[in-house]
């Protein structure tokens, strides 16, 4: 049995709580948060607490608060015996180095309100100051997911950057695709199978191998036409820079300059 | 029973052939191609032909050759009674206007050798000069997929452009994500669940609503750090331009300038 407490009441806290509750040999001791209304969402099946001076001990304290509040919140755990781990992709483990036992429990996924994320679609990236604490985090994560990785602070920072490309920027490209469809009265759903196949291909081929399109072919005539079509939209610069980046990768000299 | 012939022996021809063969009330009359070795791949279950002057009649001729060969190839069908349709996203229907019955049968999907694309993951975008011919194409496409759209040449051109964003450019972002992982010895698979969730979210939220990340928040400190980390990689410009585009969309003034 692992006894876990969560500090914070946001998206990550909610996801972790819901996941822990489904696992027999994990017990959630307390949810601690400054936001009393948010605490109510956790219901009566768990002890909720807004007074940070009354925190009980636990095997693991998971700090799932805003990045820049992690250090301050960890101070309330100074006399605890349990392991203290934050959930941030971009904050170094060292922010907790004032605590004897500390580590990182980073779920590499995007959580938003109103969307449940399936159990096995969350990779956990773990780090700890001590070997035995790392084992404890591995033990916990292993109950939640079969995707458990040991990732140091330097790697985690870089993963977070990679996530900006494959999550934030990809989503923006979806937005642009949708805008282009909307303008001509086409449903965005028409692109969904293509989007799915783009992703599925990378399970069989590397993205480098899977690349297609005018920029890869060095088809500057099509690129020019597209840039012309995009003039009013404001998305020409995105098109130009990405085409240029692809062209460079495959040694093509296209006119994908943004203008 | 719809009698179909295919001109061309490439990726689209192969996909369509494999799909037609599975459908009882579609008969493939001939596969016509200039490439005799490629014709062999279609096996003995269908009549293959490399002499374009000996084409039999059919209900529908599907021209699945390179964009700039469509017009020339269609000339061989001048005296046929059947409907002539090309499969290109970017070529106007008018390229076939010399033929009495003509239209477009555009599968909005990415086909490459060695990858089977599932039946219902191909939307068909249809256009025809005559109403009855459009019905014939709808009838055929309806046997292959439940995603059948009527799309005119102007809309199709724009769809093709949207596809560049959601397919070609997204794939390039996957490539960048993989490069960033590779450099730190992290497996690209670690990002797969996040990539899948990015896509799945857009089935519930619009990409506009689903957007997260430093550029959306206007978190210029993180953006600066990321640009610094990317300096050596050559991907800073892509990061900068996409961050700027997101920032503009949400009215944030970040320092996401590329440099
Ligand atoms: N969302 C994701 O997709 C995701 C994924 C992986 C990792 N993470 C990381 O997980 C952590 C939490 O993220 P989240 O998305 O769950 O954030 P969130 O939904 O914005 O929730 C933040 C929580 O932090 C609390 N908080 C903020 N400042 C505080 C302070 N000074 N003292 C006490 N509590 C404070 C907030 O309380 P109030 O409601 O009172 O403001 C709220 O409960 C962050 O480190 C984040 O980087 C997030
Ligand atoms: N691949 C896709 O993802 C995709 C998706 C939707 C639509 N399309 C469209 O479908 C069509 C075919 O694309 P594809 O990917 O199947 O192309 P592909 O794999 O490159 O095959 C092209 C075919 O065209 C033939 N061809 C080229 N020039 C010719 C000529 N002058 N006379 C006769 N045959 C000629 C080629 O024969 P050789 O082998 O002898 O060169 C080959 O059989 C294009 O209009 C394309 O835009 C493609």
From TrEMBL, chains A, B:
<dbReference type="InterPro" id="IPR008927">
    <property type="entry name" value="6-PGluconate_DH-like_C_sf"/>
</dbReference>
<dbReference type="InterPro" id="IPR037108">
    <property type="entry name" value="TM1727-like_C_sf"/>
</dbReference>
<dbReference type="InterPro" id="IPR018931">
    <property type="entry name" value="DUF2520"/>
</dbReference>
<feature type="domain" description="DUF2520">
    <location>
        <begin position="122"/>
        <end position="246"/>
    </location>
</feature>
<dbReference type="Pfam" id="PF10728">
    <property type="entry name" value="DUF2520"/>
</dbReference>
<protein>
    <recommendedName>
        <fullName>DUF2520 domain-containing protein</fullName>
    </recommendedName>
</protein>
<dbReference type="InterPro" id="IPR036291">
    <property type="entry name" value="NAD(P)-bd_dom_sf"/>
</dbReference>
